[in-house]
Amino acid sequence: ALPADAGRIATLDWDALEQEVAGCQACGLCESRKQTVFGVGHRRAEWMIVGEAPGEQEDLQGEPFVGQAGKLLDNMLRALGLTRAEAPPAQQVFIANTLKCRPPRNRNPEPEELARCEPYLQRQIALVQPRIILAMGRFAVQSLLRSNEAIGKLRGRVHEYQGVPLIVTYHPAYLLRNLVDKARAWEDLCLAQQTWESHDRG
Ligand code: URA
């Protein structure tokens, strides 16, 4: 089920899109959220990072990845010379989630919630026109690649979303609990950087 106005969302500019998300009532998550979490970073960033959904801190602060998983993500990005700051000289990223609202008690997103929220992420990517997308975790991957395969099966090669190279990696919250996979996530970041170097913006 898509929101009735998916076609209209695909035409919105940044400010209109941000407003639309802020007032969204397309699924039941609007009842329990404190606020929507639109995304953060440079609006024409070369790197687009896509996570799952806001957690408790994100719901409180209105910014993606500001909790424990976010600290890990920031460290991973810093190692590549990337930051979420909007200004140069650092290379820029835009960070967004697949869902813009926190699921109660951080439960997994439901298919209908993902479907209703999807036009927002799709429009964000179309507006940013990134040179590379890093999809973290199974829900970002499900939404962008339409694949239910495990991260372990999809990582390690370059996929594509609407002509943009896309790299799959583990979600940072997962990495906090599964330290052995951190080395693999690091390989994924290296592959992303190599890919970024070799692909111009489309
Ligand atoms: N996990 C996510 O996927 N996104 C956030 O914003 C925070 C935690």
UniProtKB/TrEMBL annotation:
It is an enzyme of class 3 (hydrolase). Keywords: 4Fe-4S, DNA damage, DNA repair, Glycosidase, Hydrolase, Iron, Iron-sulfur, Metal-binding. Residues 38-190 form the Uracil-DNA glycosylase-like domain. Belongs to the uracil-DNA glycosylase (UDG) superfamily. Type 4 (UDGa) family. The lineage of its organism: Bacteria, Pseudomonadati, Pseudomonadota, Betaproteobacteria, Burkholderiales. GO terms for molecular function: uracil DNA N-glycosylase activity. It catalyses: Hydrolyzes single-stranded DNA or mismatched double-stranded DNA and polynucleotides, releasing free uracil. The chain holds residues 98 to 299 of 299 of the full protein. It comes from the Bacteria. This is Type-4 uracil-DNA glycosylase. Its EC number is 3.2.2.27.
